[in-house]
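INPUT
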Amino acid sequence: METYLFYFLIYPGFLFAAVIGAFLSWFDRKITARVQFRKGPPLLQPFYDFFKLLLVKETILPARGAKGVFLAAPVFAVFGATMAGVFILLPLMNITTGFHGDLIVIFYLLTIPSLTYVIGALSSGNPLAAVGASREMKLIMSYELTFLLVMAGIIIKSGQSIDLYQIIQIQREGSPFIGSFSGVLLFIVAIFCLQAKLALVPFDMPEAETEICDGIFIEYSGTPYAMIRLSKYMLFFILPAFIIAILMNGIKLEGIHILWAILKLLAVVLLLTLIRNTNPRVKIKQAIRFFFTWMNLLAIIAIVLAIFGL
Amino acid sequence: MGFKTFCFKKSLWLFHFGGASCNNCDIEILACLTPKYDVERFGMVLVGSIRHADVLLVNGSINKKDKPRLLEIYEQAPKPVLVVAIGACGCTGGIFAEGETFAGPVDKIIPVDAYIPGCPPKPEAILAGIVKLLGKN
Ligand code: SF4
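OUTPUT
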């Protein structure tokens, strides 16, 4: 019992994922600044932001919203991110072997943060938040099918295994999945799904700052917004970690392999950051078409290739 | 300086309220965010929603139409919030002070923590003002 609590709350769950995620979000901001020839924020900036929101700022509740749901939504977002993080990181870091079928549980848990953002935004009663929420819902519907197809491709490549631990082991014995044609296609599709899941720039229309003023988060302030930030930090770590687990043969935490693990993580985050810095925001219609047509097509091609063992 | 004030000062998020300005101060504020001056070094970012703001930048003269809006914005900001009046218009009313529709400089309407005079103030002056504001309390 104590070990499980430790897993969930400290390592590799809540605390660990939050701290690493905060550093990664600093990395993202720093790279963004460097791309724009700026100097960028100091290393501990995500922590300052978080503690400022948590400790200093006042929490304002919307007068005409559903206050309970409004406050509960960020808590559930953090909860969903923590659960998904634990189930991804335990097999990835070789601590336990996970359970049978955890890939599917992870898939569902990873949608919880986005769903709770939608619920929180709609309960705030703000029209701009409602616009953001409707966009986020459309976005979820468009990338989720694609993400499921990526999972299907992984399951076929690993010989019908739905355990994350086994998928990592199969890659360790053979070669990482990304080293094949279908693997590369799946990686491209997965990166775009991540971009949409993290609401980074080509797909950040739910919180489009310049047109709907932070959209789904417009009414959040103080502690609830700190929780939302926290869940965002955690997702920034666990989603790239998930990609590394399913496509890039996981990580090993011993000796020189630690360096490899960090490099892999930074490489995936760097890719996400560069995509976000070199693209304009698309309309929601374009995003839906992009996922429904092109990404699904790419994923299906990858699956067909995988069935033929390429 | 306690941990709370330290975190607050390290992460000031800006919200920009433009009154009836001649649009020049707005541009100088935006210049602070560009690569040359880059206020993100100090942890400052421009946010879209007043609910996330720590600093309310007010520029331009406040006329009768602006006044209720400025009050509304100020009341919606989660406290503590710092108010910075930018430009001669924000500080005193400047060339609009005698105008028909003028409703008083910013500090007649909401409490102001820092004044940055100039018409328009240079980005350097705005940065200097913000640095002074950080050193104040
Ligand atoms: S202070 Fe000068 S530059 Fe600024 S808004 Fe007023 S008139 Fe324009």
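end of record. Residues 123-136 of chain B form the longest helix (14 residues).
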